[in-house]
Every structure is written in structure tokens, then in C-alpha cells.
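Subgroup meeting minutes
Present: P.N., E.W., G.H.
Scribe: E.W.

1. P.N. recapped why we're keeping a running log of single-chain structure predictions: easier to compare across weeks, and new members can see raw inputs and outputs side by side.
2. G.H. added today's entry (404 aa).
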Amino acid sequence: MIRAYKFLMRPTVRQRAALGEMLRDHCSLYNGALQERRDAYRHTSHTSIRYGHQSAQLKEIRAFDPERHGRWSFSSQQATLRRLDRAFAAFFRRVKAGDKPGYPRYRGVNWFDTVDFPKDGDGCRWDSTPHDPVTRVRLQGVGHMKVNQHRPVIGKVKTITVKREGRRWYVILTADQAEPEPLPKTGSVVGIDMGIANFLADSHGAFVPNPRHGRKAAVKLAAAQKALARFPRSRRDERTANHRRAVQRVADLHRKVRRQRLDHAHKTALDLVRQHDFIAHEDLKIRNMVNAPAPNPDPERPGSFLPNGARAKAGLNHSLSDAGWGVFLTILHAKAESAGREVIAVDPRNTSRTCPPCGHVSAENRPTQETFHCQSCGHQAHADTVGALNVLRAGLVRRDAGPA
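Output recorded in log:
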């Protein structure tokens, strides 16, 4: 199986400058390749340029400008061209599917933050020797940089990626390792129901509170964004020291909230995986859930609109995004695979409206957000617990049914 590791790098001042130049030159290569594709399609009878054609030009580009492009790894430049090729492939796939196309755009220097090295030893080298207490990574054109390796890397390193996050630099490794030993069986199965008031409720009646990291940081974030807004847009290109500090303050607060969400997701998923052999959850379409409501035109007044609940929906969307369900479910599936556990997603429809004892389905069974009261048999319970029970039953049915 393939596993990723992310470590903080400790570059020197000179190495930090070289890393910035590497990102700028790869960004220039990306934008130049994008411009070539646009020009070819517009001016040569809708001719499309593929990755193979652009990759074949790399030798000429490196020979023409060795100071800017010749100093970096040939394989990393090929990876940048592949990234553009994947962007176009995704664009055409969305066009065929009828989705919003999203044509590939030019990247600004501040929006191009990663450089990929497809193979360890080709323009990069991960150097983690047992007798050396200091771990280093070597990058062509940059040199050997110290790495804060906080855990051992198991398996053979396959790819290396350098990423900039604010003022920090990280190295991301993917390692090919053998299948891990599964955790001992516990004989327990569980269904979970995701929510806002509680992050999740399980079928055993337990609840995990919602930490609401974004809401807790909202006051500080609003103050930081207000301080940033004081700089006029006409002068923002000057990049004064005060402006840079204001930008960094906003970025640091967003980074802290993101890391808090990740920490909570990892700990919650790990507890579930350690305690249960089988986990069922709702197959949530989170992207559709956070869509803004459609406008409601007023038929009596052309050009005017009736209330459509947009303000209330915006507050709900903030709460959904703050909960971080998508990140949690991704981490849960990854940890379950490593531990030999089984995770199944089930259809969420009517899971909180179905009575577990008698099976009666009705919207009136849930008079409030937290209360479940069956109108047929009188069963009462917490609505989230009822939803988790129904999710577990649906998951067990799907598991026993097997593949179609």
C-alpha cells in the first residue's frame, strides 16, 4: 500500500531563496505551457497540444535558458507539465459530464506552491541514515536541507513533493510499504450519524461534541481581516512590511483552524477504528449540501426577488464547512484500511425519520432537531441516535448482501 509522510523542512536563508526561485520557474513553465495550448487551439484550426509534444520541447527550453530552467530537475519539470495535462483532462471530463467546466487558469507566483519529483534519486534524494541523527533531503539546485522527521518512514520512498505553506516549507513523501498487520478483532459494530449540534452520534448512544474551531477563531479572524482591509487595493502591490504582516496574520489563523480540524478528525477516527470492526456512515453529498439556494424572482415586480432563506442557508453552510465532515470521512477510510476494518457508506434518506422498533417512516416522527417520537408505536429517543441505528442496520444489510 502507498502511505504519505509530511515533514517540516529547515532550509537556510540561501536555500529558502533557492526554493522560492524554483517555484517561480516552475510556475513560469506551467503558464508558458498553458499559453502554448491556448494559442494552438485558437490559431491553428482547433489543434490540441498534448503532454508528449510539450515534454519533448524541454531539452530545447533548458538549453536556451540554462540559468532559469536548466538548473532544476528535468523530471520535476515533466511533472509540472503533467499537472497541466491533468487539469485539461479534468476540464474535458467536466464538459462531457455537463458540469461547470472550469477552464485551466494561469497561476500567480503566490498560488503555485508545490513541485513534484516523480522518483527518489532523480533530481532529489531522501537521506535518512540510521547512524546520522539529522535527516536531510537533497534537491537539485537547492542542496541538502535539514528535515524535522518526527516519525520513521516505513517502506521504500517513491515520490517526493516540496510544498510551501505560508512561511514554512514541507517535504511530502509517498512510500510503498507492505500491508500492515490488522488490529485484533473486537466483535463490535457501529453506525454513526454526522451532525452540527454534535459532531457525530453512534448507535450505542454515545456522542462526540462538535469543537466548532472556526466559530471560536471567528473574532480573531475578523479582526485580522479588518486590519488587512485597511490597506488600499491601489497600494497592495507595494508589499510593505505592515501589509505582509497583516497577510501573514490572516494566513496563520486559517492554518491553525485547519490543523485543529485535522487533529480532531484524526483522533475521532482513530477511536472508532480501534473500538469497532465494522463502521457504517451516511453517504453524504457535502458539495451539494453547501450550495447556495436558487434565487426566487418576484412575478409581480420584474427584476426583484422574494426572500429565499439565503442568509439562514449561509449560516448553515458555515457550520457544515466548520465541522469538516469530508476530511473526517477521508481519514476514517484511510485508517480503517490500514487497520483491517470495514467501512461502508449507506443512503442517508429517512435515516432520522424511521422508527427502529416498528419501521414507521414519517417526517412527524421528528418534531424537533434532537427529539424522535414515533407516531405509530410511541418510541422515544434522541434523533441522532435513531439515525445512527438505522445507518448501522442499512450498513449490515449491504455488507451481508455482498457485491452485486
